[in-house]
Every structure is written in structure tokens, then in C-alpha cells.
Design goal:
444 residues; Methylamine Dehydrogenase, Chain H; four-stranded antiparallel beta sheet; 2 helices
């Protein structure tokens, strides 16, 4: 063998060892982005749902929803009425504690936040007048519950009138109080619900209720028209005012420019609840906003779903798509984008990360932006960058109906999405009743 042949052989061997070593290291790299880390169900023999999830300061997370069961994973309940249900997880995804809240009526939790004192605040709707619920003014009231860090009730309060008043979302405000939003049944209230004079509307309106740090009413205002107006998300602005986003099919009173059927209807109010501006976004079909988040550049993203393919909606992949709009603090549209496939795809929640946003909802598609459908509706999670470009997406579910309602992001690089499931196959290895709380952990 010549010297050149020996050198070439050594170089080839080194290259081969480097290649094998590189392949070995590659196979041990972290799980690919958007991969499912775990899927689990929590519940009993009746119906459960995970409505909202929040990251905790101890790097765990807390889920709010509701339960009808008094068996299985539900350990502190004696009847089969619906109650608020909070499940607190540690950072290792094991349950730290779980508790139910409510009375003998219909109590369903919708939104949870962690408060600055390390506890939690909950909002939803209640028809109870007993148990944990101290008062009720009608069929359904906003029911707010303040918990300490261990899930014990610090205080609770109800807000409402005769009729169905449904609490949907809340934030802690800069003065350490809270702003609650939901639907006021103006017809049922007889026009009450404003702490200042206003013309009476009909049907259901956006209702903003400002309370103190101890849950006492400071002011309340309602906004809308004579049909159905449903707020879903709220955010506080640097000037201490608020932007509220939802859906409306009204075309009168506070709504000046209905585009067609339901629109994204976005309002900005002052710190005292005065209407500053209102805007409608959408096309001629049904468009409903579900959540709002601050962007990385001082603007705001609002996500929901659309069946339109005209006016402000530049494209549609078929049936219903997730629709995302970016607006300025003055309510001007910056850009809009849609995501989905040829079937029905919806969004329910959005969370901001360091390098983009994650959106959760549901999908029936198996084309377009959706790689696979596992049967009927799947819980659908996807990530976009700051410009709205799709980075990864994942469907979770089985052959029955599976939905996503809430999403959060953990410091360990995982995304937590919660919802409910009626499946018993596919990603769902166990179903404990009619519907279970569905918990999906996705690697970012």
C-alpha cells in the first residue's frame, strides 16, 4: 500500500467515524418541534371539560373547567351537578391537588388566571344559591372565585340579574382589582347592568364588570346591539383602558359597521368603562373572535374563526378556517391570515412565546395546513412566528369528538393544551366517562 493510499484510508476512516458519531448524536437530540410528548385524560363517569389553563409561578400549571362526576379522579364531590373544577399540576405533570367549587345548581368554569399573590382567580357561570355560592340573582350569574395557592377559597362573589348572565373571561388589572367580561342578558335585566345611564339594548351584550382586589363591584357597563354580542377575550392597555374582542351579529346601537352575519367585534373602553371606539372585522359570513394577546411590537393579535372569503378575509381553505388579525391600539387592521384545511377548523385560545405564538382549537381537516385528522374533530395546536408564518402543527384525538379550549407555555419548552374528549382510541388511551378533560403536552 502506498503512502497516499494509507493517508486516504485514514481520512476515510476518520470521516466515517465522524459521520457515525454525528448520526448518533443526532438521534439523541431533543424531540422534534411539534411532537406529542404525552396525552392524558382526567375525569369520572360523567362529563368533564378543561376550559382554561395557566402557567404557575412554581413552573407547574393549573387547569379550570367543570365536572359532573363524583367518582374517578374527582375526589371531593358528592352529587352529579356541574361544578367548577381546578386541577393543579406540578412541573413534572403529576397532579398536586384538585378541587371542585359550586353548589347544587349548574356551575361551569370558563377562565383561570394566576394572581400576583400566588393564588388564582376563576370566572364562569353559576345558577346555585348554596354550597360555595353565597348569592344568585337569576338563572345564571357571573361567579368569580378567588383562591389561595393551595386552592382554598379566599372569597367569592356573584354578579347578575334575572336572566342568563354568563361569565367568560377575566384579567387582573394594574390596580390589583379585576375586570370580568361575559354576556349580560339585557332583556332579563330590564336594562340594568350599567352603573351610568345608557340606552337599553335587547338580547345579550358584552358586559364588563370592574371589581376591587376584594371582589367588590366598582363599575359595570354593557355594549352591543339588539341581537347577540358575545365577548371572549380582554386585555389591559398601557393607559389602563381595555380592548375587548368577541363576536356580534348586531348592526345597530353601538355597532356602526356590521359587515355580514357575525363579525369579529372589537371595542376599546377607558379605565372607567367609557366606549372609545368599536370596529367590526370579517366578511359576509360568520366570523367570531375568541381570544386576544399583545404582540411583540405594541400591537394586538385577535384570533377566532371565519367562514367568509371576502371583504376583509383574503382567503379561505374551505368550510371554516382559523382567522388571525393584527390591529393597532387605534383599531386599524395591519394584516390578516387564515389557517386550516378544507373542513371546519376553529381557534379558541392564543399564547405568546419568545419567538412567536401558539394557538389551540379544533380541526376536522386532513389537508391544507393540517397534516392528519384522527376522526371527526381533533384538538388542534399550531405555532406561528411573529409574522404569522406557520412553524409547526399537531392534531390530537381519536375517532370521536375532541376539542381544545385553552393553551399555555412552560419554561421547559413544552406547550400545554386542554379541552375535552369523547374518544376511546387513537391518542386517547383511556376514557373514564362520557367526556373527559383532555390534556395534551406538545414539544415546542
Amino acid at each position: 500500500m502506498t503512502l497516499i493510499e494509507r493517508v486516504w484510508g485514514l481520512l476515510s476512516l476518520s470521516a466515517l467515524l465522524f459521520f457515525v458519531s454525528g448520526c448518533s448524536n443526532s438521534s439523541q437530540n431533543e424531540t422534534p418541534h411539534g411532537s406529542i410528548l404525552s396525552v392524558s385524560t382526567v375525569g369520572g363517569s360523567n362529563n368533564e371539560r378543561g376550559s382554561s389553563v395557566v402557567t404557575a409561578t412554581d413552573q407547574g400549571y393549573a387547569i379550570l373547567g367543570y365536572t359532573q362526576s363524583n367518582d374517578g379522579d374527582v375526589t371531593d364531590k358528592t352529587d352529579t351537578s356541574f361544578d367548577y373544577w381546578v386541577v393543579k399540576y406540578k412541573a413534572d405533570h403529576t397532579i398536586e391537588w384538585q378541587k371542585t367549587y359550586g353548589g347544587s345548581g349548574n356551575d361551569r368554569g370558563r377562565s383561570i388566571i394566576q394572581t400576583l399573590d400566588g393564588g388564582y382567580a376563576l370566572i364562569g357561570s353559576s345558577s346555585s344559591t348554596d354550597g360555595d355560592v353565597s348569592n344568585n340573582s337569576g338563572q345564571l350569574d357571573f361567579w368569580m372565585v378567588k383562591l389561595d395557592s393551595s386552592g382554598n377559597i379566599s372569597w367569592e362573589n356573584s354578579f347578575g340579574f334575572p336572566g342568563n348572565d354568563e361569565g367568560i373571561s377575566l384579567i387582573q388589572t394594574s390596580d390589583l382589582g379585576y375586570l370580568l367580561i361575559g354576556v349580560l342578558d339585557v332583556t332579563g335585566s330590564g336594562g340594568e347592568g350599567n352603573t351610568r345611564a345608557s340606552s337599553r339594548h335587547a338580547g345579550g351584550d358584552y358586559w364588563a364588570v370592574k371589581v376591587s382586589a376584594s371582589g367588590e363591584l366598582e363599575w359595570s357597563r354593557y355594549f352591543g346591539g339588539n341581537f347577540t354580542d358575545t365577548p371572549e377575550g380582554v386585555i389591559q392597555l398601557p393607559d389602563e383602558g381595555y380592548i375587548i374582542a368577541g363576536g356580534s351579529d348586531s348592526e345597530d346601537t353601538d355597532i356602526s359597521n356590521n359587515i355580514g352575519t357575525y363579525d369579529f367585534w372589537v371595542i376599546r373602553i377607558s379605565s372607567d368603562g367609557d366606549l372609545i371606539w368599536e370596529r367590526s372585522f370579517g366578511g359576509t359570513q360568520i366570523d367570531e373572535a375568541r381570544a386576544i394577546v399583545a404582540s411583540n411590537d405594541g400591537n394586538y393579535l385577535i384570533v377566532g374563526d371565519t367562514r367568509s372569503n371576502d371583504v376583509m378575509v383574503s382567503s379561505n381553505n374551505g368550510a371554516a378556517d382559523v382567522w388571525l388579525i393584527k390591529i393597532t391600539p387605534s383599531g386599524n387592521l395591519i394584516w390578516e391570515k387564515n389557517y386550516g384545511g378544507s373542513d371546519f377548523d376553529t381557534a379558541q385560545d392564543i399564547v405568546k412565546l419568545n419567538d412567536g405564538y401558539v394557538i389551540t382549537g379544533s380541526s376536522r381537516s386532513a389537508d391544507g395546513d393540517v397534516a392528519v385528522n384522527k376522526g371527526q374533530n381533533d384538538l388542534w395546536v399550531f405555532k406561528i412566528d411573529f409574522e404569522g408564518n406557520l412553524i409547526w402543527e399537531q392534531s390530537v384525538g381519536g375517532s370521536n369528538i375532541d376539542f381544545g379550549y385553552g393553551v399555555t407555555f412552560l419554561n421547559n419548552g413544552s406547550v400545554v393544551s386542554v379541552g375535552d374528549t369523547g374518544s376511546t382510541d387513537g391518542d386517547i388511551t383511556e376514557n373514564k366517562g362520557f367526556t373527559d378533560l383532555l390534556l395534551a403536552i406538545i414539544n415546542d
